[in-house]
Queue: 3 jobs
Job 1
Amino acid sequence: MKKILLIDDSDTYTWCLQKYLQHRGYSVKTACTLKEARAAIQEEMPLVICCDLDLPDGSGMDFLDEVRAADKEIPFILASCHDKDDYEQEAMRRGATLCMDKMKGMLLQDKLVEYAYKATTDIIPPTYHKLLYVCADEGNAGVFRAAMLQKGFNLVLVTNLFDAEKRLAEDTEIELILSDINFSDGTALDLFFAIRQLSGIINFADRKSDNLLPFFIVTADDDLKTEYQYRYEGVNDYFISPVNIPELIRRILFFLE
């Protein structure tokens, strides 16, 4: 299997990205210098490249030129602490796929998974949707997330309300929320009300006229009283696990397309 190549002179930074990507099933190669990166691509062209802008022996921008001379299609992400306005236009002109703030590590993780998935699948869905999945049981969520990814839905996984609100504040690419009922720091209803407040502050991209993200309950709780309460408050749909994935996707697309 081809590897994702991470190039950064911070071992701690690449270690965190590497562990996340390996947990998602991807092989990873790391390099601290351009010399090591050049040796890696000579051995085998990676699946995706993520490179810092400033390295001890040169510039990630110059390495981008070298990669593009050999391969015009490989996804190449420049991740830097510099203000993107200072270099993004030049980087895109020279063939970068994406420029990102390396301190927004969770967003960078999402993009690496997205591009790696697109590079390894034979059938690319016409649209790649990003959903926030707030789940009470991370173990069971992995199988569900993998099944949804095969259909073109990248589930960003969090396990509490604090992380859910943080991701929504940072990531305007999220199009819809799936949520279980109960968490260590509150309930899905608490999150639903918090999102109503967030929607007045954050301009979510491509929202409907009410500016609210579609909100689905996906839970093992089959109590009819609970379901009635959530539907009464305005959640868009309510699913009891185990979920019929084709039906879930059909209803998701009703709100997204």
Job 2
Amino acid sequence: MRMVRWLGWIGLAFLVPVSAQVPRESTQAVVVVAKDWDQTQGQLYRFVRGEQGWVQMGEQRPVVLGQSGLAWGRGLHTLPKPASPLKKEGDGRAPAGIFSLGGAYGYGTKPLTALTYRESQPEDRCVDDSNSDFYNQIVPLTIPIPWTSAEVMRREDDLYRRLVVVNHNVAPAIPQGGSCIFMHLWRSPSSPTVGCTAMASTTMDPLLAWLDPESKPVLIQLPQTVYEQVQSTWNLPKLP
């Protein structure tokens, strides 16, 4: 029988498995922590894991989150029971939990990064129509795909000029579970997103240069209270 630990959180109790949640082969972690579930701003940290455990790299940087804060997403972690709030399509919340990272997209030539990079084209769309067979996938308009809603990947406001795909609600995507989650550039330090994690270019560019696909990088994104509760049992980096 798998052991569980009883944890209380602002009046809501849930069960959390007593086990590491970050894959053993993952040695890079991007950690984003917000003050609470409804906070639209947070702090980003970078960590590497070696023989002595997790070690912080560089200084923490500010980020903005969803306009409604955070909600439990679907990724590498085990969802608590009950999982509340739970990420849903169109809720304006960024996903909380642990997620692997995919490739990078952007405008123009490849930036300094070891991640797989694809230059976004005017016809590229990320499908957020939950009824589509291509829900939560980036596809070109040239493919005859039925959908009623899809996000433009080459935006006129340049927010997607640099982005990293967050592998949330994938393989397979659960309908209405949330789609098209990225780390991308922010409009301003006070402008939240509709569900992504955004940052200044002075944060994004070093992040892209640092991320190494061979290190199996992950995004760990949680409210601070929850992070502190699970830090030891989930074997997460210790925040300064």
Job 3
Amino acid sequence: MGISATGLFSRQQKGLAKMAKANEYPERIAVLQHLIKAISCICGDLEDDLGLAQATFSQHLKALKTACLTQGTVEGTNVCNCIR
């Protein structure tokens, strides 16, 4: 039986691995690039700007948020997305 790798790696190493996994799709890289170019938070239909379906965009954005690469706030009926 193998040894658990949980205690073998630092918090930083685990965080970097999480970020790398979040960036495995070109759609997610495009989302990050779009947010970086905007300099500020983008509210509204970001998925339309990138040509992604709303469900697809939401899935990718969730993965980026989970990896702590982006953050979002709800303002009325819009979600504002930013680079974290």
